[in-house]
Amino acid sequence: MKMMNIILSFFILVMLANVKAATFQNANNSSTKLIGYNPISHPTVTFTIYKEKHIPYLDAINDIFRNESENTKYAFQGGNYHWVLTGFDISIDNSSRHLKKHFSSNRIEAIQAGTTFFIAYIKEKFKDVVSRCMYKYDFENDCPNDLNDFANNLKASIYDRFEYEFTHGLIKYESEPKDVKVKKRAKKIFKALVPNSDMTMNGHFIKIIWDSEHNRLAHNISIYFSMNINKNNANATCYYKFPKSEIAESFVKSLRKHDLLSQMY
Question: Where does the signal sequence lie (predicted)?
Answer without folding.
Answer: 1-21
